[in-house]
């Protein structure tokens, strides 16, 4: 059995996964692409073994884990850096998905999982608490809300959550250039729940910030799994044909109940793995190398 781990050489999440595989004494082949040079990669459809050259594989791996490289873009934000990372990801993920006997997370993931509004709507239908939510670009609607008690965030993800007051403070138009997710403001603590096959990990994320990612000021702790939310989250992931992901929850200031925010299909996990003393990454390796439906 072997595990192929693919992505950028600055991605500390992949390095943590490599460490976990080696700690478990599982054969592991990292293929980590540098920023300043490119390794060989040639996939010939005429090759009956379907083993691309350059991966240093003597035989097809049992399992593979891949992440698109975003870390080189953090250091160099040119479009060509992003385009290069995407080309490598498409080539390598395309090969992995074409080989149906290679186990990988979320192989048959539904397109619904890519759309945050859809995930919110389905979560509510299943019985998860969600914030009061509108998807809108109407200033009439936004100005009718208490701007200090509501937040705005990009409908397509990728940006930080900000207060509605900040989002509309300098807008002079009747309609914003694009719709945004508008929700009532929730409070800390936040929770991140990882689902990895049959494994579950819940982390408390305690931060004074509206979005802890902006200042990286969160204190993390591994806590007991909230069974009600985990059960409904598993139902949501089953609808989306996912066996790996991380969901974020915050706290309702009135009821104290957990409120579902979003489901991440390719979450960062290295810092959470440290808090779990390596158990999270070990679960990822064990699932990929031992579960028949991975």
Would you give an account of this structure?
This is ATP-grasp domain-containing protein. It comes from Acinetobacter shaoyimingii. By secondary structure, this protein is α+β, with helices and mostly antiparallel strands. It has three domains: 3-98, no CATH class; 111-128 and 186-290, D-amino Acid Aminotransferase, Chain A, domain 1, CATH 3.30.470; 133-184. It is 32% helix and 26% strand. The protein contains ten helices and twelve strands.
H/I helix tally: 10
Which geometry do the CA atoms define? globular
**Coarse structural class:** alpha+beta
Q: What is the distance, rounded to the nearest whole angstrom, between the alpha carbons of the first and last residues?
A: 14 Å
CATH architecture of the largest domain: 2-Layer Sandwich
CATH topology of the largest domain: D-amino Acid Aminotransferase, Chain A, domain 1
- Order of H and E elements: EHEEHHHEHEEHEEEHEHEEHH
* Range of helix content: 25-40%
Q: How many beta strands in the DSSP annotation?
A: 12
* Rg, alpha carbons: 21 Å
Mean pLDDT: 93
Low-confidence stretches: none
CATH class descriptor of the largest domain: Alpha Beta
Percent of residues in β-strands: 25-35%
Give me the CATH superfamily of the largest domain.
ATP-grasp fold, B domain
The description of the largest β-sheet is: 5 strands, antiparallel
Into how many domains do the coordinates divide?
Answer: 3
Topology readout:
Blueprint: E1 3-8, H1 12-23, E2 28-33, E3 63-66, H2 71-75, H3 79-98, H4 116-126, E4 133-138, H5 139-143, E5 150-154, E6 162-163, H6 164-168, E7 175-184, E8 187-196, E9 199-206, H7 212-215, E10 219-223, H8 227-239, E11 244-251, E12 258-264, H9 270-275, H10 279-290
Parallel strand pairs: 1-2, 1-3
Antiparallel strand pairs: 4-7, 5-6, 5-7, 8-9, 8-11, 9-10, 11-12
Helix pairs in contact: 1-10, 4-8
Protein name: ATP-grasp domain-containing protein
Organism: Acinetobacter shaoyimingii
């Amino acid at each position: 059995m072997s595990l192929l781990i693919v992505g950028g050489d600055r991605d500390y999440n992949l390095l943590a996964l490599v460490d976990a595989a080696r700690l478990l004494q599982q054969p592991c082949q990292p293929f980590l692409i540098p920023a300043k040079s490119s390794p060989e990669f040639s996939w010939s459809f005429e090759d009956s073994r379907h083993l691309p050259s350059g991966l240093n594989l003597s035989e097809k791996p049992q399992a593979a884990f891949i992440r698109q490289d975003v870390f080189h873009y953090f250091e160099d934000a040119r479009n060509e850096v992003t385009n290069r990372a995407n080309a490598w990801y498409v080539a390598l993920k395309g090969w992995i998905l074409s080989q149906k006997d290679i186990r990988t997370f979320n192989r048959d993931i539904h397109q619904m999982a890519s759309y945050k509004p859809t995930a919110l709507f389905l979560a509510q239908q299943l019985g998860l608490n969600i914030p009061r939510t509108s998807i809108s670009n109407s200033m009439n609607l936004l100005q009718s809300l208490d701007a200090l008690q509501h937040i705005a965030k990009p409908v397509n993800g990728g940006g930080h959550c900000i207060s509605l007051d900040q989002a509309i403070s300098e807008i002079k138009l009747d309609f914003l250039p694009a719709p945004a997710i508008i929700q009532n403001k929730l409070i800390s603590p936040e929770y991140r729940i990882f689902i990895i096959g049959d494994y579950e990990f819940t982390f408390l994320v305690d931060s004074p910030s509206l979005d802890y990612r902006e200042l990286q000021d969160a204190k993390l702790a591994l806590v007991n799994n909230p069974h009600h939310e985990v059960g409904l989250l598993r139902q949501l992931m089953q609808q989306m044909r996912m066996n790996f992901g991380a969901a974020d929850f915050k706290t309702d200031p009135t009821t104290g109940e957990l409120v579902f925010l979003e489901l991440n299909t390719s979450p960062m996990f290295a810092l959470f793995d440290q808090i779990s003393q390596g158990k999270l990454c070990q679960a990822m390796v064990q699932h990929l190398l031992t579960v028949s439906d991975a």
